[in-house]
Design brief:
Length: 171
């Protein structure tokens, strides 16, 4: 799902939380954890530009990570703290599943790791978005994904270069 939607959803959630609980710090965490989670794509973009094969590690998009955070928060402050700690990132993952039409296992770190994080191995269907092919395309790619028209990737650029790029996917 495009980051601009995550900003809108997390922002609305954070404002509602702030209004209901008056807890500004928790609301700020809700906003930041629901939006900045997408920064974990940057290392992949940079590394994939120099790889033969596209790999998707995106560590923050992992059920396992948020399960550990939830358990740690629960042990420290009970179910309310656990919910406040992982509610927004979990909602982000659910929106990515819905928006990108990928199965929930796509966001299992262990599942991806077993497949070597290889896009070819974890891809479950043909997808429509291309990945940047060089470091210099990354800013444009980000701008296109945040402000560009819906589902209009750098596909025209990727056409003809490699079939993998034409059907690659970014959650
Ligand atoms: Zn995401």
């Amino acid at each position: 799902m495009r980051p601009v939607y995550h900003v809108a959803v997390s922002g609305a959630l954070a404002l509602a939380q702030w209004g209901l609980t008056g807890d500004r710090r928790a609301a700020l965490w809700t906003f930041l954890s629901g939006t900045l989670i997408d920064l974990d794509h940057l290392p992949d973009y940079i590394l994939n530009a120099r790889r033969e094969e596209i790999r998707l590690t995106f560590v923050l998009h992992s059920w396992e990570l948020w399960a550990v955070v939830a358990v740690a928060a629960w042990a420290r402050g009970g179910s309310r703290l656990a919910l406040a700690s992982v509610g927004s990132p979990v909602l982000h993952l659910l929106l990515d599943i819905w928006g990108n039409r990928v199965p929930a296992r796509f966001f299992s770190f262990a599942w991806r790791a077993r497949r070597g994080f290889s896009l070819r191995a974890i891809r479950t269907r043909p997808v429509r978005r291309s990945l940047p092919q060089s470091v210099w395309e990354i800013p444009r790619y980000i701008v296109a994904n945040v402000f560009g028209p819906l589902r209009r990737p750098l596909e025209s650029q990727a056409l003809g270069k490699s079939p993998e790029y034409n059907t690659s996917h970014v959650p």
